Amino acid sequence: NFDPPHLTDAAATYLHRVGRTARAGRQGLAVSFVTERPRDVAAVHAIEAKIGKQLHAHETNEDEVLKGLGKVSKAVNKAQLLLSEVGFDQKVEERKKKRKRGEGQGQTANGDDADKARRV
After folding, report:
1. Residue 14: HSE in the Cβ half-sphere, 13 Å Cα cutoff
2. 1 with 39: CB under 8 angstroms?
3. For a surface tag, which of 7, 32, 62, 79 has the fewest beta carbons within 10 Å of its beta carbon?
4. Which of 37, 59, 81 is the last residue of a domain?
């Protein structure tokens, strides 16, 4: 899922994103992979402080991780291929260029001035 935050104030964003695993009153499960590096430990502590609970650790071994690695690699490749087919990278670049030029700010989807649309 979403990587744990490495800044204390990013814990709220992380919690919001992983919270989306439980939608419409249903239960969900979020799994985050962290190491024993001080940076990861600090991120986990920030999340625990924000929610007021201690997170549960699931110890794993290298063989267990390697079993799933092939599956993950295939899924990533498939997703990248699908994104490429629909021109996702080009759309991202177009949006970045528009942002740099300041286009699209203060406009509704049909190009009207957003302030005028709100006043009507």
Report:
1. 23
2. no
3. 62
4. 59
Q: How many domains does the chain have?
A: 2
Q: Could you tell me how far CA 59 lies from the centroid of its own chain? A: 24
User: What is the spatial distance between Cα 107 and Cα 21, in angstroms, rounded to a whole number?
Assistant: 32
pLDDT in tens, 14-66: 777 777 777 777 888 878 888 888 888 888 888 888 889 898 888 888 888 88
**Domain endpoint, select from 35, 59, 83:** 59
By the 10 Å C-beta count (0-12 exposed, 13-18 middle, 19+ buried), 26 is classed as exposed
Structure tokens at 38: 């001080």
